[in-house]
Design goal:
The protein has 183 residues and is of the alpha/beta class. The protein has one domain (4-139): 2-Layer Sandwich (Nucleotidyltransferase, domain 5). It is built from seven helices and five strands; from the N terminus they run ββαβααββαααα. The longest helix is centred in the C-terminal third of the chain and has 21 residues, at 122-142. It starts with a strand and ends with a helix.
Length: 183
């Protein structure tokens, strides 16, 4: 049986919080037409599919890199590190890896990194959904601690409310200082 791990990330453009990557291995014969790029789905649909993906996946691994490390090494190296973390957390060793538009080094098996991989590979779309739901839930749990920033709705992205709150109240320890220096 071929074990293809799909990898995707979320949160690269956020002003606060981590970047999160996910690796998902689905059964060869698994097909769910509802699983597509997380950006093309409503939050409610992503939540429903999250449980379906976890119930059907052969293996799921998450990689999280915090805002402090993002500020230290940059978003691209941090994203790649999160992807490597996600791979190491899989309970099965993949025989092939498909990564959405990011080239990684030092992988244990053959790999490809097509642009918009989530549109062609269901395992990558599944990874995008799991990563998005995980990160959104995290930011929603943090939102009550920092209510003026609106993380319950903007999830740390640069909404007008979020940027205005940074200007008025300053930053928190969860903000990416390298991302907000010009706000």
């Amino acid at each position: 049986m071929k074990l293809v791990a799909g990898i995707d990330e979320v949160g690269r453009g956020c002003l606060a919080g981590p970047v999160v990557a996910c690796a998902v291995i689905l059964p060869d014969d698994y097909n769910n037409v509802e699983i597509k790029d997380s950006k093309k789905l409503s939050a409610k649909k992503r939540e429903l599919l999250y449980d379906i993906i976890l119930a059907n996946a052969l293996a799921v691994g998450l990689g999280v890199v915090c805002n402090k490390l993002i500020d230290t090494i940059g978003i691209v190296p941090a994203t790649k590190q999160a992807m490597h973390y996600a791979l190491t957390r899989l309970s099965l060793q993949p025989s092939e890896i498909v990564i959405d538009a990011v080239s990684l080094n030092n992988l244990p098996c053959p790999h490809i990194h097509p642009f918009k991989a989530e549109d062609s590979y269901q395992c990558v779309a599944a990874a995008s959904i799991v990563a998005k739901v995980y990160r959104d839930r995290l930011m929603s749990r943090l939102a009550p601690l920092y209510p003026v920033y609106g993380w319950g709705s903007n999830k740390g992205y640069g909404s007008q409310q979020h940027m205005n709150a940074i200007r008025e109240h300053g930053h928190t320890e969860l903000h990416r200082l390298s991302f907000i220096k010009n706000i």
